[in-house]
Structure formats: structure tokens, C-alpha cells
Amino acid sequence: MIEGRANELPDFQVFQTVIKYCLFIIIVPVLSFFFVKSLVFDGVLRLEPVTSSVYSAIVAVVVLHVTLGMYIYRAYNEAEKAPKPMKKD
């Protein structure tokens, strides 16, 4: 019974990590779009609505690529750290 739990724990931790990054990848670019649009482009620079929306979308796409890159970097590094299975004789 305990062996079954030991096998489930790493899977659950992987699931938690994937869910956290999925939420991060969805929420952060959307928040960055509205934050940059309202405070920077509409508030400080006083651009026209269409222009500020285009620039905010560009910022959101850049933020999206950064978050995806962070996820890929973490997944790659965890794959290298994982112990290699030993062959049984």
C-alpha cells in the first residue's frame, strides 16, 4: 500500500507544477496587457485606444513567451536531474 503512495506522489507533484504553470501562463499575460494598457499607454503616454491596445498586445505576447520559456527551462532542468533507472540483472 505504501509503495503505491510513493509512486503517486511524484505524479501529483508533476501535476501541481503543470497546473501552476498553466495558470501562470494564462493569467500573467492577460494582467500585463491590461496593466500596461491602462497605466502606461493610456495613463502616462496618452496614446489613442487602438494604438495602446496594439502595443499592449505586443507586451502581452512578449510576456507569454517569457513565461513559456520559464516553463520549458524548468522542465528541461528537472529532466536532467531525474535519476536514471537502473537496469536489473
From TrEMBL:
UniProt xrefs under Pfam families: VMA21
Gene Ontology CC: endoplasmic reticulum membrane; endoplasmic reticulum-Golgi intermediate compartment membrane; ER to Golgi transport vesicle membrane
Leader sequence residues: none
Domain of life: Eukaryota
Primary location class: endoplasmic reticulum
Membrane-spanning residues: 21-41, 53-73
GO annotation (BP), single: vacuolar proton-transporting V-type ATPase complex assembly
Membrane topology of the entry: Multi-pass membrane protein
InterPro entries: Vma21
Places the protein is found: Endoplasmic reticulum membrane; Endoplasmic reticulum-Golgi intermediate compartment membrane; Cytoplasmic vesicle, COPII-coated vesicle membrane
Keywords assigned: Cytoplasmic vesicle, Endoplasmic reticulum, Membrane, Transmembrane, Transmembrane helix
Function: Required for the assembly of the V0 complex of the vacuolar ATPase (V-ATPase) in the endoplasmic reticulum.
Family statement: Belongs to the VMA21 family.
Protein name per UniProt: Vacuolar ATPase assembly integral membrane protein VMA21 homolog
Organism whose genome encodes this protein: Parnassius apollo
Organism lineage: Eukaryota, Metazoa, Ecdysozoa, Arthropoda, Hexapoda
